Records
---
Amino acid sequence: MIQSLLIANRSEIACRIIRTARAMGIRTVAVYSDADANALHVRLADQAVHIGPAAARDSYLRGDAIIAAALETGAQAIHPGYGFLSENAGFAEAVAAAGLTWVGATPHSIRAMGLKDAAKSLMAAAGVPVTPGYLGADQSPDRLQAEADAIGYPVLIKAVAGGGGKGMRRVDAAADFRDALASCQREAAASFSNDQVLIEKYILSPRHIEVQVFGDQHGNVVHLFERDCSLQRRHQKVIEEAPAPGMDPATREAICAAAVRAARAVDYVGAGTIEFIADASDGLSAERTWFMEMNTRLQVEHPVTEAITGVDLVEWQLRIASGEPLPVRQDDLLIDGHAVEARLYAEDPATGFLPSTGRLAMLDLPHGALRVDTGVEEGDSVTPYYDPMIAKLIAHGADRAEAIELLADEVEQTGVWPVATNAGFIARALRHPAFATGQVDTGFIAANLDALLPDAAPDTAAWVAAAHTLAWVESDRLGTGGVWSELGGLRLNAAPRSRITVECGGEHRIVDLLATRPETAGRLVDDRLVIVEGGAAFAFSRWRPGGAGGAVASQGAILAPMPGRVLSVDVAAGERVVRGQKLLTLEAMKMEHALTAPFDGVVAELTVEAGAQVQVEALLARIEAEEA
């Protein structure tokens, strides 16, 4: 058995691996960049080694520095987690060449499944059904356009080396193909150093079904049933669950058997996931389910599989890497209840889900009722350098309805401030009637976006609660003085001062304390009162004449949400624009973010050109509303 383990990753997954390793009596070594010097995974590990600057390419993607850290600390094995170097066959080979144990798939399997076009050809030969499309070597725009035209729109452009939703574009019409192709190739080159793509028929009512597989070094392979990851935004998973709703036993048996065939076709060892796309227009059926790709690593959503099977997949990884056989046979694995996972991201739904960064002055995550996998604690910071996920929230119930209700209740009480999150968005998705009945495909979010976006402003109950709490706080600070000392109503020579004015988000309201009663509570954070409603956090303070509040003058200012590079500027100074029109595109966090006009108006100011590097909150453009 492995005695010491270096985790070549960061944040949530590093903490999760450390937890299992510690339970198994295995010493752990963390690696960290400049930005992660005080990160939770560094604090939890038995030892930590600095490997470079904040940028991932200079730290977490430096295989040589990671291997050197393992040798320096006496670690016997390296676990890559997911992302970064987890599916890098060259790194896996270098680990083995250094005399270390690689906790993951073999380089052969990684290479065989790493390029989507080659993997689909291999799967077809193994009798695994694959989606119709173009996998050819001719990557000229003319040839790709011709193939897309022949397949018929809509089509999906996918980077052959892609993953995590990067390098992927849906195209609905031939006229849009060239622009989408160029954008996809740019993103693929930036993320994977490979701009090759394949073209697939886009399924109009698609469900994303994936099967967890596991193989050992003795030729044994099992599946641990399926997960449904259909609730996605821009091809990024938001809510996952296991088992898949609406999955009948016959379809499950067929899909899981195909997944095992796929794993055997590449002599698979370790944890892996076979991803399928299903046409759910008439329910789930094996005849309308096709192979998409294989992820030769642990998945972000693995906790839902652990919840329904009672298996610790990381423990299995460590035991299999140590040469042990799989601890169970296929017939020993059963489904127990239902599990649902939500990814809590530092992103703002009100700004098109742009990432939000900063210090987590308030981080109130569920305790006890849910499994919470996180890589941060209150007081830590979300930086612009890495994935913006704060935590994974996992509920397990006797059935799907129970798991959803539990997760929704807890997400609605999750409070994060001042960093914006998608908690309110998640809560609304979980409460949506279509989700409750399992009527979900990958277009669910786009089709229901307006209904899923949380309220941008607090409701009346929050204003009342804020006013009462802030009044008590002020009275407490002033001793016998303050507003509450004047609310008795017993003074004969003066009217009691019963009203105070509170401010939130640029708006202020007068609240009569005697005429209202608070129904909720808040929390004081950095001299602001934070109240959580349905997962959304609102910060209140006393409003003073001449202070913050009133009209917001900067609503038309388009600011950079994070450091990045301006890819394109799509408008000119003086041009009339309409609400939602794309103004420019910013590349940050290895993804492209379109910044749009907040209202109809005129481009009064334009401060950047394509190619410019900008810092967070830099003014990029300013829109002025036209006078009526």
---
Amino acid sequence: MIRLGIDTGGTFTDLLRLDERGIKVHKVRSTPDDPSQAIFSGIAELITPAESAEIIHGSTVATNALLERKGARAALVTTKGFEDVLKIGRQTRAQLYNFMVQSRRPLISEGLTFGVVERMNADGSTLEPLLESEIKALIDTLHTKTIDSVAVCLLHSYANPIHEERLSSALEDAGFIVSTSHKVLPEYREFERWSTTVVNAYVTPLMARYLTSLEDGLNKNSLSIMQSNGGSISAARAKTAAVQTILSGPAAGVVGAHAIGNASGYSKLITFDMGGTSTDVSLINEKIGTTMESTVGDFPVRLPVLDIHTVGAGGGSIAYIDSGGSLRVGPRSAGADPGPACYGKGTELTVTDANLLLGRLDPEYFLGGRMALNLDRPREVAKQLAKQLGLSVIALAEGIVRIANTNMENAIRVVSVQRGHDPRDFALLAFGGAGGLHACDIADLLDIKTVLIPEHSGVLSALGMLLADVTKDYSLTILRPTAQITEDELQLQFKPLVDQAITDIQSEGFAKDDIVIERDLDMRYKGQAYEITVPFKSGYEAEFNRQHQQLYGYSDPLRATEIVHLRVKSVGRTRKPTLPTPAVNPRELPTPSSMRATRFARKPIPTPVYHRELLAAGMQGQGPALIVSGQSTTIIPPHFDLAIDGVGTLIATRQRPHKQSQRT
């Protein structure tokens, strides 16, 4: 059986084929106007018409629709009197001292929010019934509007969804696509529940059309979609729950990084995924971190997602001069079309162009020689920008790289230092098309000693899709003081969720022995507004205090706590490739294929160039080195040693502090 992981990025679409003969990777230029065209092109080059494959796909359709405000025309139906919940939000200000801050652009157009007379109490009892006349009047009104989908978000539906169920049933019978909050997010907090449901209503019609078109073109190949929680779901489920795929590509990268890191003997990792448009970072402290507090395009999406922080810094990030005369880099990107200037069409200077000007890319061996880079074009563009700044072309290129590095360093501090972790205690695992170009520089800035570059670093997100399990998440709001509920009572509260989780995952074709059930509690001190998720096992209250101490620097074991939500995750274990052992016998690096003048610490240094495909397990040496492959390029500075372990991972070890490094 052939398994195929496909990751659609802003610049390239990555494909990775896995069968009994091993792994084969491929990259094609993305087609932003219709991502499926790049997918069909890549599949045709990896799979013959006579073959069939199980495809796991990380899609950016939902993400782009939300970020670019190109989603469906959706209506919002809510309890009368609560029509402005999304506008009011939490009344928090991201820029505290900015009096000119712009308000959030709504996903629901003016005039498409409708209140219905009904009311549930927080305990699930009915305060005011939903009348049939209200439902009929609503449907008549919606038929006069041109809408694609409807989000139904009623007060306290997490406690009793009967009114939402009646409304959704009637709306579906009337021909509308419906997203209900008790299915999308059955938890209290109206703003987050309604925001998540509206996002789902906004992106689901586009995702459904995209996946239907994709399935039609895939013929006999099966299709699953990567979720933001690090697992996959069927395409049929993704068509109705597109909000679960918002961060699917970055999540797959973290899954792949976790597997490769463990195979190489590193359980504490900071993942660094630098692509063409953005950089995604995450921290793995033996386990992959998850969070419920994610925001996409200014909108809270309160679902279990991998704890990933994203910044607009990638190979395609554009350098420009701001209104104050300072050099800036990103977040605007050249994307796949026109791409960086060195690709032959772009007219603006990017991080990739800067790396080429500094000798950090081999223009004749980009993508393994399948694509030649134009050196003259970025040099001419750089001359114009450098003249405005009073710099040389080389100084400008060095400045662009340093600014991009600082942006990415700050992103890593968000997931490490700001979460109570010292980055020096972790190894940096870099991947993505541009990750290897900047990884050692980032390690210097954060005083990290070890950098890992996986063998298939340029397509690690695609590999992560093949390593991901099928997962489903469930939750229940209980809002009970911890002292007033016993473990036995919690077991009874968990049982319906667990039963549903097992039933649903078995419907995906998994045998009982391949199913894992995880149970967690959302806990907080009484009086707090937000929670910490801890495993449901003996000593869960002590574990809550320990995590609170790490996150916030204090804890109070004598203070009363409460349990807010119960959470269940069902995991169906998939077939995965077997990774080799890291143990090998040391040997020297091969003869370099060529030499290039590459700039380190503001001066050119003759640097040997090695083809990644020729570096075998056990080989080791010293920097500087430029390692090129058909997927990506890796830079090893002079003050790093390098070695290839038995897994195929390149391990770069810093032997002495670099003058640009700084303490955390």
---
Amino acid sequence: MTSDLLPPAIEPAELIWRDGVPESATFGDVYFSRDNGLEETRYVFLAHNGLPDRFNTVPEGGCFVIAESGFGTGLNFLAAWHAWRETEPDHPATLHFISVERFPLTRDDLCTALESWPELSPLASQLVEHYPPLTRGVHRLLFDSGRVRLTLYFGDILDAWQALDFRADAWFLDGFAPSTNPEMWLDQAMTDIRAHSKPGTTLATFTSVGRIRRALASTGFQMEKVRGYGRKRDMLVGRLPTGEDAEEPATLGSVAIIGAGIAGCLLARNLAERGVNVTLVDSSPGAGSGASGNRQGATYVKLGVEFNDQTELALSALMFSQRCYGPYRESCWHPTGLLQLAWNEQEQDRQQRFLARNKYPTEILYPVDRERASQLTGVPTQTGGLWFPGSGWLEPSKLCTQLIQHPGIQTAFNVNVTKLDFSAGKWHLSSSTGTDIVAERVVVCAGHLSPDLLPFPGSFRFKSIRGQVSHLEESSVQAPKAVICGPRYLNPVHEGVAVTGATFDLRDDNPEPTQASNEQNLSELQTMLPDILTRQPGASAPTGATQGRVGFRCTTHDYQPVADQLCDGEGNSVAGMYLFTGLGSKGLSYAPLLAEYLADRLSDQPQCLSAQLKRRLESRRIHRAQGGESS
């Protein structure tokens, strides 16, 4: 089924409401039983997959994976989440629920549909709150501090099964009946279901169509017809034989993370919440002391005019970061909204082409004229731009300190790692202070210092970019009430200071702030917002503008991050070693999603990125061929 809707938007479901029950106008079928949809779900999908009893068998640090072929109203997910809460193990464990939806409900329709189930209301309200904007691709939502992870794929089902990396313990084969929605029940879909299953995987479906039973049986499922729910006489259940190739639960082992910036701290917390023992190592005296030590940082990305893989990765990171930072709203996350100003003719043209070739939900962004831009930001602007209502600014160092407050995280600060050795299946981290840290796996997450820690010689395509921000005293600037981005960004005043910057100094290793860099920031800021500073052109710098801070960003030759198991120069994976760096100036937006992805891989759990987006993060890109370009 094709669509002429511009990317990345996806068509919402068209509903017809009859006596409080939603029907699909496209497929002419109901979303759940008119008799009792919740009880039907519990009978068909939970009971016939042996749930919730099987939840108690999940080992410490393990996960149980449910995959579903039609998300619809989310009723099946909520029923499974409710059952998990009632019977989940008393040790760290994760419920993964993976679902596909070609025509997702709008947020309002989702809310209305779930009002029928008061007992699920506390969970339904959280689902509605975190429900993603209707854009194609993968969306990862976290609930109960990560003990429940929902992976939603908005798009065609065959595309979903090709893009996603997981193996299910149980299948909910839902969606509309084969007679009304045959594309969901193609033989290829049945083959893909088998490919995403493991020995002992079970399935249940409301349908009893013989073609479906035969197709699943041909892939290896032992199929059986059993009594259906309510007025349905029959339904199908299946199980893959366990056999001799039954999988042993993966042992997580310990992880050492080198680098306590925003990326390292997010990864440490993510792993600790899954039950992994983490040691966070940094040469500084505390977390968030390097490039993540700025007083303020804007959370934004620059979306491409063409919606390609690079743009999709940026969009996915932006949406995930907003959900990730939500719990910290009262402390260090400030979702004020953000304006990407069309500050010159070139940027105005770029934004016009962007809007002509794409359709984004207004929850993500929408264009504003000069008058509206001034109203939203609270300061006079010369032009309009793109308004991102869910973005804002962060206190990164403060967040880092909060993230590492977890019993599963041990810290080793003031430790300068000098050597990494692999011996007897473990990594040994040696330091100049004599500290020796041992872990089964290690993640190098040290920003521009990461290349120096790699355990083999080589020439790497990394760039270290000096960035100086300038601190403006409240009296020296017309403070905006939202973030404004252009050739520089300007944040709202916090504790008497607004931060602007940053410089982009590619071949400058001076760690100290300079007056020249401050003047450069102020000049660019006035180009973007001519009336923003209290001084007149040609006057001396306003009081307080000479203060600043320097950090060093790390980026790659193609300005895309690295989040992957490390590969050596021959393309071979290095056992137990991972690399997480190259986030550049967008680290606050990219780090949450990439930390989630790396934690998925390190814990051997379903992955939150599609196959094509994972390729953009591969570590094999960092090696420069002999005679290749210089950085």
